[in-house]
Each structure stands twice: as structure tokens, then as C-alpha cells.
Amino acid sequence: MKRLIVLLLVCVLGAALCGVAKTPADTLIVGLNHSSLTDLEPAAVYNFEAGLIAEQVYETLIRYRGGSEVFTPGLATSWEHSSDGLTWTFKIREGALFHSGNPVTADAVVYSFERTIAHDKAPGVWIITQFIPSVDNVRKIDDMTVAITTNQPIGASLLATVLSVHGPASIVDPAVVRAHATADDPWADKWLATNDAGSGPYILREWNVKQRILLEAFPQHWNGNPAMKYVIIQDLPEPTTQKLSLEAGDIDVAMGLLPEMVNEFRSNKGIRILETPAFEFSYVAMNLRFEPFKNVKVRQAVRYAIDYQAIVQGVLGGAAVENQVIVPWGMPERLDLGYPHDPEMARRLLTEAGYPNGFKVQLLVRTNPPFPDIAVQVQEDLRQVGIDCEVVTMQNSVLLGLFRVQNYDLTIMRWGLDYAAAQCQAQAFANCVTSGPESTIKSITWRTMWCPSGVSDWCAEATAELDEHKSVILYKAIQAITLEEGPYAMLYNPLTQIAIQAGVQGLVVPPMWPYMDFSLVSKG
Amino acid sequence: MIQYAIRRLLWMVAVLFGVMTIIFFISRVIPADPVAALLGPQAPPEVIERLKAKWDLDKPLWNQYGIFLWRAVQGDLGVAISTNRPVTSDLAQFFPPTFELATSAFLVSLLVGILLGVISATRRGKLADHVSRVVALVGISMPVFWVGLLLLLLFYYVLHWLPGGGQLPFYMAAPTRVTGLMTVDSLLAGQPDIFVEAVRHLVLPTVVVSFYGIAVISRITRSSMLDALGEDYVRTARGKGLRENRVVLRHALRNALLPVITTCGIVYARTLEGAVIAETIFSWPGLGRYATNAFLAVDFPAVVGATGFIALMFAGTNLVVDLSYALVNPRIRYT
User: Which residues have C-beta within 8 Å of that of residue B171, sequence separation ≥ 6?
Assistant: First the structure.
């Protein structure tokens, strides 16, 4: 008996100490924090993580890629618009198949939009319904042609952006959805929450909640069979674990590292870093309910007082690019302007505004890094010009609750674009009719109680402008006025930093990282 | 004995009710908005209202509590905000990995703790005693997350001896779920390769979580062994000419174990607690990581469910320990 126990112990120990496994050649293993991943039902896809999966499993009429070639054909091979900019006609790709083997047709496109529009209370569906409010706006012309009529004229690139939003604009297989629909659940939401009815380069094979997602290549995909037969998206919430797993070769891609970890990897030959300025912002929001901020000179003084480079280089270690306008780096509409760090000018403006001795204000900030550190830098910068900030840290959910109801004076916020268009930013940061409770639009402008006269009209005009050149000029004007008078000190666009094994080829990180395409990846 | 057990079970229900009520109200009165946390800054207000209605967060507090109680007695703990699934299904999925880790760590604590305790009692004041004291001190004073990271760095990163996180290599598919315990399921499925990997992945977290138990059990064993070794029956046994090993193991240790059993309840509970922290470091898909994520996401139903379940584990373990006294020590009778 004793010998048997000893033998067993030796076996277990031996098994425990045998070599470390490496990732298989036909499998891409990605480390990602799954904590926001709750639902893969297309209309409900609204966060980054679910978007990344939807991007691999489903397809849209037009694909967003970022970079120099922003849009490429997806399930539509070509599109053209009527001269009034209201009706768009799409040619559907011949030979495109859903994972079930059914062909992608005009009927499937109409059904998909009908399904999305029926979910008008899902978080991201407004992106579609703001221009395509009813299923009557989507019409089948013939088996392979669809016409979409928008409720107002909109520019080509704006429409392309909206139609490339994965989730709400994804095309689903009607036969599969109907097969899983029930009387209580006519759109098969429950089934689609954990299964797929798409035509993308990968099939969702397994979703083990808070553990891993297994995707398998779809060999009949119109763009060919992806090089990676399997993609495993492993739940690794801890940055340290991701770092160690990447170094040990247990994962190929780490998507949640801290900037200092990324900097450490720069000297590691076995690992490459992919970096792109993200379509995200961190910004200081000033609420005009607070008396001093009603004066535009005070708002400008705050913008002059902040040392943007100290935040980008000092606090963030270079993991961001300074950006003081509301349109992110990488968009043609972006206006390249900003305030220099000039405390002297800030003091002068405060004096002119009637606050020669500054004032006291509470600065609310979320507890998650790097925000408390940014708050300390802002506090110090404002102290230099006489503004005495009391920094109050709180849970993000608490802070968002206060921000939504205009209940704060000064705060630091984070913002990510819902879709890759300057129009998305203008609507959020410059469009406001009234700052009262009766307002139907409660955008960032409303939450800061800043309602500039005329700028909202520019926003509407820019949205409807068919001439891309003219719309760029309008967006630049909107940015200029926001920079001059607005209640924000936009700080930076963070870098999306992804570390990969040196042998991983073909992975491109777009400014909106969930639009990453794993079907282009191979391993050397 | 049976009467006693029934009375204790009823008490357990009362404790559970109390814990869940307290947690329910604490989670509701904190000013955090779970829907805001879920949807982020840009979601339209009507979407937020709709989601609040879905989770009954738009109703008055007492009304919410009533709905919660009525559903809870029917075994329905609501739908978790952060997974969009019933909390009971989540608990059923995430508890077995925690149980597997905590139990293996508890068994290691028991084995190593008693061994260390006996060695230091029989070699009192000698090197072995001092070494065991240092081990106990280290075990009690070092936080689990720190030991975890250190061992991960050494055995996974530097030496490449052991895997880093999870229950299996990332590319390996789990066996068909029967018990939810990876080691058992892999054997039931007849997949020895998965069993070997499951054991390898269990080693590091087990060692980390068992530190506290080893420390406590070795100290208790040592002091009660010292008492036992000074008793008359030990002297008699020695006088009869029995071998020292037999005296120590058969006579002294058996009697010295009673206080160890008393501590087992606390140690097991603390081991569960350690497992909860270790799970995040070792990417262990258990209840601890589930609960941590629920707390961060202000996921009320999951927080109440997970906390209630952990309270149930604590109360249950203590009950089992109390009842086991009678089995080990015939002098104890319950009335």
C-alpha cells in the first residue's frame, strides 16, 4: 500500500514537472479580459469585446478597416447613391455563404435590418435607426440587389461607417434565426446570445463563459479559408498573467497589457508591439451649472493651465497622443490645433473673468488607473494658476450616474466612439438644443450644460452634406468653436497597444481595435 | 444527535437569510449604478431605463426586496447582469473549480501541517522546530496574491516547470462536464492526457492556497502534541517499551488531533477565501473570480448570490466539523 502511494505521488509530481506546452501552429491564442462579454446576439453587441467576436463571425455590407483604405466591400461588392443622397443601392456578393451553407441574398439583408430595427431598445441600435428608422427604408430590388433609403441625405463615408458597425449592421441567416425562434422569442435572441448565424470567416464553436471562446475557420468563406484553423480567445483578466503567458509562449496575442509592460517588451526580440492611436478620448468636463465655468475665459484658462505633455509623457509613459480637439487622430476631419501650456495666460484670463484669486472646485474622478494619476496632474496644474481642486475618487459606475444627471462641477471622463465618424463626435460634443431636463438628446453637451447657439445647426448641416470636402470644412469649424468656447479640455487619444509573438504575421490594429481581422493572420 | 443536527440546520437557514438580506440592502444602498457601469457613457437614456426595468431596479427598495425573497425561496436568484445568465447556473458552473482547488489545498494543508507539527513537537527547540515555525510565520503573514505572483514568476516564468494559469492548456478542450471537477471529469471521460494537464495546472494554486492552512494546522498540532506527549498514557506507553514512532503516532497524535479538527472548519473556510483571491492570479474559472468580477461590475444579483453561497459554505463546513467531533471523541455528546 505504502509503495503504491509513493508511486502515485511520484507519477503526479512527474506529470506536474514535465515540459511547458506551446501554442499549436494552426491555432491563434488571444489573451483578453472577458469581463464585459455578456451577449453575442447581434443587436445587443455594443461593447468592444463582443464586437471583436462579432467581427470574426458575422459580416456587414461594407467593412471598416481603418488605415489608408478605410472601407472595403463586405457582403456588398459595390454601392451607389441617388443624386439626392437619400437612396443607396447595394449589389450583394455572389457566392457568399452563411455558415449553414445557405446563400447570402437580398432577402437576408432585408430580414437582418428588420430584426435589428425591431430591437430598437438595444444599446447600439440607435446607430442604425438614426438614419434607417423603419424596415420600410430597406427594400429588395432583386435577389442580389438591395436599396436603402435614409431619412435624410447623408454623406457616403458616414453611411459606410454606419453600415459597417458590427452587431446592429451584421447580416444574419434568416433560416437559422427562424429555426431557433419561439413564440416568446420571435427573433431567437436567447439562442443567438451564445450561437452564431453569420457568414464571417470564423464559426463560433464554443463559448465557455468567463473561460474561452473557440472559433473555427469557415472553409467556404468567399475570401478563402483563413490560415489559422482555430482562434481561441482566452479569458485572462490579469495583465500580469497575460504578460507571463505571452513570454512563456502560451498565448500569441496579449490584448490587455499595461503601458509599462509594453515598454518592457520593446527590447524583447521574440515579441512585437502593435500600436495605433485609438478612437477614444480622455477629457476634462466642466459643468456650466458651476458659476465660474459659465465664463468662457475661465474655461479657456483651464485649457491653458493643463500641461498636456506632462499627462501624455509623465503619467501615461507615452502610451497616448495629445489631442485637444473632439475629432480623433487618424480622421481626415481632424483640426490640428491646441492650447499651449501657458499658466501665465491662464492667470491673466482668470483675472479678466473676475477670479484673480482663483476659486475652489471639486474634481470627480474614477478609481481605475490611470485616472487618479491624471487627476493629480490636473490638480497640480490648476493649483499653479490659483484654482484649488479637491480630488474625489469614486467607482466609475457612481461617477457615470452623477455625470448623466449633470450633478458634478468638474470631472475627468473617458469616451470611445460608437462608430468611426466625425459626425459621431460632433453629435456628442457639439450638438445641443437645450440644457434643460426637457431635452430629448442628453449628449455630453447636455451633461456639461453647454448649448452654443448655431453649432447644432452646423452639426445637422455637416451630417447632410454630400460633398465630402465641404463636410470636412464644417467639421473643422465645429472643432474650432468647441476648442474656443467649449466646456471640455480634451486631453489625449490613448494608444491601443497589443503585444504579439514575433512569428504572428498579418495582424493589423485599426483605430477601433474590435475591427481587427483574425482571418488575415498567419504564423511564421 | 439528529435533533442537534436539525436545530443547527435551521440555524443555518436563518444565518443565510440574514446574510443575504444584509448584502441585498448594502448592494442597493451604495450609490453605484450597475446599468451605467454596463453601458458606459454614451448609451441613450431610454435604453438605460429599459435595462433598469429588466432588473427591477426602477422599483422601490422594499418592493425589490419582496421580489428577491419570493424568487429566492423558489430557488431563483435572478439573472446576473455581468453574464446575462441565471445566477444559479453561474454558481453551478463556477463553484466546482473552486471546490476542486480549495479541497486539494485543504488536503495538502492537513497532510503537511500535521507532519510539520509532529516533527516540531518531537524535536522541540531543534532546527526542525525553528524551520517549521518560520514556515508557519511566513504562511500566516504573506498575502496570497503576493505568494501567488512570486511562485508564478519562479516556477512558470523562470524555470518553466509548471503551467501559469487556467485549468488546462489554452488550446485543450475540456472533457464532457459531469461533476465540473476537471481531474474527475477527465478520468471519467477516459482522457489521461487531460488528467495529467489538470493535475499540473492544479499544483501551483494549490501550494499557494494551502500556505495558510499549513501554518495554522502545524502550530495547533505542535502545541497539542506537546501536551499529549506529557500525558501519563504516553509515559505508560513508553514504559511498556513501545517504539517511539508507535508512541507518537498511535498514542499521542490520535489524542492531539481533536483541536486540529476544531480548526479544520476555520481552515477550510479560510482556504476557500484564499482560493477566491488566487483565482484571479491563476485565471482559475471559479467562484472567486466570478464574485470579484460581479463586485467590480456592481452586478447586484450575482453579488448577493455568490455571497450567500459562500456564507452557506462557511456555515455548512462548521456544521460538518461540529458533528464530526462526536465521531472522533466519544466523550462528546450532543443534546
Answer: A21, A23, A24, A27, A29, A230, A232
Give the C-alpha distances (Å, rounded to integers) separating A106 from A57, A96, A245. 19, 12, 45
* CA A143 – CA A104 distance, rounded (Å): 9
Residues of A in contact with B42 (CB under 8 A): 415-416, 418, 428
pLDDT at A432 over 90: no
Which architecture does CATH list for B87-229+256-296? Orthogonal Bundle (1.10)
Q: Distance between CA atoms of B68 and B72, rounded to whole angstroms? A: 6
If 0-12 CB within 10 Å is exposed, 13-18 middle and 19+ buried, where does residue A245 land? buried
Q: What sections of chain B are H helices per DSSP?
A: 2-29, 34-39, 45-54, 61-73, 87-122, 127-141, 144-151, 182-188, 192-229, 232-239, 244-246, 254-281, 287-296, 300-328
Torsion of CA A319, A500, B144, B30, to 10 degrees: 50
CA-based nearest residue to A509, from A523, A494, A491: A494
Span B281-313, pLDDT tens digits = 888 889 988 888 888 777 888 888 988 888 888
Alpha carbon of A334 to those of A196, A331, A415, B163, B187: distances in Å?
Answer: 37, 6, 17, 47, 60
CA proximity to A330, closest of A90, A509, A124, A135: A509
Closest alpha carbon within chain B to A424: B42
The interaxial angle of helices A422-429 and A468-485, nearest 10 deg, is 30
Lowest mean pLDDT among A74-83, A307-316, B272-281: B272-281
Looking up cell 425591431 gives: A118
Q: What whole-number distance in Å separates Cα of residue B315 and Cα of residue B116? A: 29
Residue of B nearest to A189 (CA): B84
Query: For residue B173, what are the CA distances in angstroms to A247, B56, B168?
Result: 22, 38, 8
CB contact under 8 A, B160 and A241: no
CA angle A60, A66, A70 (to 5 degrees): 70
Look at B280 and A237 and tell me if their CB atoms are within 8 Å. Answer: yes
